[in-house]
Amino acid sequence: MFGLFESGKSIFDSGFLRNSSDSHSHILYGVDDGVKTQEESLQILKCLEEAGVETLWLTPHIMEDVPNTSEALKARFAELQSVYKGGIRLRLAAEYMLDNLFMERLRAGDLLLHGENYVLVESSIAAPPVNLWEILTETFGRGYVPILAHPERYLYLPQDDYAKLREMKVPMQLNIFSLTGIYGESVRARAQYLLKGGFYSMWGSDCHRYKVLMQQYSSVKLKKDILSLLDSLKVMPGGSI
Question: What is the pLDDT of residues 166-211, one digit of tens each?
């Protein structure tokens, strides 16, 4: 499957994006710190369609500082669907900060799910919530599976915690740009460690801007061995997440 991958090729040129599922993006316009205009959303979608992306999850932030409602996000998603005429399958979910608002929405059953019973969650990159493990346990207890977004960016987590997350059966999502060094060398090293250790279940671009997406996909090169490991993440497990 990786006959097209050669050392030194960009992500665009490698063909990795063809028939792939991007599980995390901020392309739904005007709702968070991601894309601001409908025009830019459509520009990104055209670019990704030409690259062969099959499924794109739109996962706007929901947190105490960005208290988007499910209803408002569904309405904006419907607007985008009405103007996008391309072939990418668009799916709506959300990226929930593990904070008090998430607990309120969780207990009310008011969640934009990432598939049948999965929910994409994140923590602060500066420090974990005091009750991280209790929140994850309660999420499972209420019938949901928390997907942990970009765990490589949580540099405060010791390696043993990643093993604990895997034992709890918490799926982990790689930010593909972590491998390019955009978040720094420490994050890149941790992403490589987790990728080589088989910790990830899926990948996402976490795209916020067209210019950054184009620069990262077209200019930054990944080594052949890293691209080969990404192959198992090209399509999300079971097709349901």
Answer: 999 999 999 999 999 999 999 999 999 999 999 999 999 999 999 9
What CATH number is attached to the domain comprising 63? 3.20.20.140
Residue 151 lies inside a defined structural domain of this protein? yes
pLDDT digits (tens, 9 = 90+) for 88-120: 999 999 999 999 999 999 999 999 999 999 999
Q: Is residue 74 part of a domain?
A: yes
Residue 227 lies in a domain: yes
Distance of CA 162 to the CA centre of its chain: 18
Which two structure tokens, joined as six digits, stand for 41?
A: 């959303």
Instruction: Assess contact for 95 and 120: CB atoms under 8 A.
Output: yes
